[in-house]
Design a protein that fits this description.
By secondary structure, the protein is mainly alpha-helical. The chain is 71% helix and 0% strand. The longest helix has 31 residues. It is globular and about 55 Å long.
Length: 255
Amino acid sequence: MTLLGGGTETRVVHGGGFPASAPAHDRTIEHRFFTGMAIAIAITVLAGFARSYYLRPYFDAPPLQPLLHLHGLVFSSWIALYVTQTSLVATSRVRTHRRLGVAGGVLAVMLVLVGTITAIVRARHGAAPPGGPPPLVFLVVPLSDMVVFALLAGAGLYFRRQMAVHKRLMLLATVALLAAPIARLPLGILRHGVLVVFGLSDLFIVALVAYDLAMFRRIHRATAWGGLALVASQPLRLMLGGTGVWLAFAGWLTR
């Protein structure tokens, strides 16, 4: 297995991208980084959906439809599972991590299905975030989130035996879901445009790039390709959303 996608072939430990002879201090930093990223993601999701979902009774929010409850349950379960999985690796309980990985694959499929259906149904009802584009135009954002998440999570599961690749792809897949909670933070972020929302979510990618550079003095291939795919998809989906072809397709979906 290669350490960073090129150069000398190196045996790596089960926990990540370090050689077997790497100091325990370096592995501790790695575990703390990925666990910290998982916790930061969970806090972002909690803060973004606190008013409309997690703490909804305290903010006099309107009742939620059953589909939205299912959506919240599935997406929250993914975040909870991601935090659990990173914590298990950090505490060297890799066997339990692998067993839960089966549930993670099933949950990922459910997330894509429920996320896609929810996006289409809400667009059909004319729902869009306050300050955002019209519903049919905006539909390109959540549907693209599902496509990017599916690609990154699928690749992460495929490379599950290459832990350095696996953990980066699973992190990036989860980051692909963060535009929605960030847009709902009580800061009026969406008023500045969807690209600003994407830019804030991309700070998690920047942190991963900075970690790779600090630890290895180069960017891991999974970080580079996965991060590039995620970032490149963001302006592309907005460009697509304003085209007649997309509006016709979105109209067909919501009928």
